[in-house]
Amino acid sequence: MRSLTALLTATVLLAPALALAAPTFDIARFDQDVKMLADDSFEGRAPASEGEKKTIAFIEQRMKAAGLQPGGPGGRWTQDVPLLKSDIVGAPSLSLTIGGTARALTQGNEIAVRSATNGQDRVDLKNAPLVFVGYGVKAPERGWDDFKGADLKGKIMVVLVNDPDFEAKAGEAEGDFGGKAMTYYGRWTYKYEEGARQGAAGVLVIHEYAPASYGWATVKNSNTNTMFDIVRADPAAEHVPMEGWIQRDLATELFKAAGLDFETMKKAARKKDFRPVALNAAIDASYAVKAEKIVSYNVIGRLPGKTHPDETVIYSAHWDHLGVGQPDAKGDRIYNGAKDNASGIAALLELGRAFAKQPRTDRSIVFLAVTAEEKGLLGSEYYGANPVYPLATTAGLINMDNILSSGKAKDYTISGVARLGLLDMLVAEGGKLGRTYVPDPKTETGGFYRSDHFPMAKQGVPAISFKPGIDLANGGIERGKALGEEYTRDRYHQPADEWQAGWDLTNMAPDLTLLYNTGRALADSRSWPEWSADAEFKAKRDETAAARK
Length: 549
Hints:
Elements: H1 4-14, H2 27-37, H3 50-66, E1 69-70, E2 78-98, E3 101-105, E4 111-114, E5 122-132, E6 138-139, E7 144-145, E8 156-160, H4 188-197, E9 202-207, H5 209-212, H6 216-223, E10 227-230, E11 242-247, H7 248-257, H8 262-268, E12 277-303, E13 308-318, E14 323-324, E15 334-335, H9 338-357, E16 363-370, H10 378-385, E17 394-400, E18 411-414, H11 421-432, E19 436-437, H12 453-458, E20 463-468, H13 476-490, H14 508-523, H15 538-542
Parallel strand pairs: 5-8, 8-9, 9-11, 13-16, 13-17, 17-20, 18-19
Antiparallel strand pairs: 1-12, 2-3, 2-10, 2-12, 4-11, 5-12, 6-7, 12-16, 14-15, 18-20
Helix pairs in contact: 1-11, 2-9, 3-9, 9-14, 11-14
């Protein structure tokens, strides 16, 4: 059986050769687009805000000026995305009774609770018992069940972040969860969903920097502001009344009061025979929730294909960030999101301009700027469930999230572990440019499940999220890693993620060229990239195989 790479190479070679000029990108214009989107006047680009209105208008204007056509339903630039918006009214009243002694908790300090998105207009928990349920995983296909039939109704699940084998040494873990590579079972979103299936009253995730891959500041800033969700028929089936995080130091106190050692219990949770453990603690929580249904927007530009306009290649990026939230040490409350993800939108616009200047591709190209990524990939989730262009004949999707690097790099990667023909195409195009693909060096962060390609992959669409390299021309891998860690620690999901005059943009032209060439090769071919035989998304793609004959 021929490999995916061989099949794709053979198919691409059959495509008609076009004498095309090399794409050109205006990096100064890219920089100005990032600067504008990250300006304080855009108020952090939160959905359902004045900042959203400015952002949508800006992207529409830039797409139109680039020569793109409106790609939304009914000839519009936008696709309506109905969302449930919820806010905690005032400061939540939170207290913990540990070993018979009550203590107040301060939102954002020891604990960070999210406004309820389960349909309730308030949360009132009285003396709700806390139960440690390990990693909170139920995975029958892996022979794993952290719950063992425990009755969790009315109780609060206390769970570890990441997978049971993330920190395990040889012989300590008994589950097949990918080692350092996070599976979906390691994501906090899964743990909340499982809590709802278990009938729990709440889920509190214990924060630790390494398994979470970010600090407490990121947790606080991401969870104590406005929450959004897609509009669900039964929201309580997906969300428990109280969702939140607690600091590791508080967790250590909880375990000690129950006569337990935190590190010892973490090791116990790596074994299949782990059973839930009641903690000698209970929580009181009381706060009103203001919930309302709003409409946010995906912005869509399109260049119709000249030969197969009903077939589509998509470039995507999310336009939103966290908006206005908790102040940092300097009193700054605007979460500008320059790298995350004004840079992705600026890249999307540059690619649109480049394609518009060139002869039309055989297939159509869609430029999709999605909403509410920071609230759970909601804009892409909605598009995946309500596609404007059929997913069966969408040949592939290339996503761009936090694409701005710290300088020109020899290498590049994608978020997470993926096995599909679209990656083979990216690697082949990179080779032509003298670039080296390397596997995601931080699969423990669960990057595959944290960006807008994931909802499309769940629908079967071949989808990847591009990440710039870390083997920098100036300083190599050591400097690349250090700068990446500095960004995660000091700026990611913090007000400090701001536009910077004179920052190093030398990665942008090479990376945009690689992304352009990959999308162009796919759009001008008759290739239908496939998932590998063992990929979890192959079965979903196979359901629509007849549409691609």
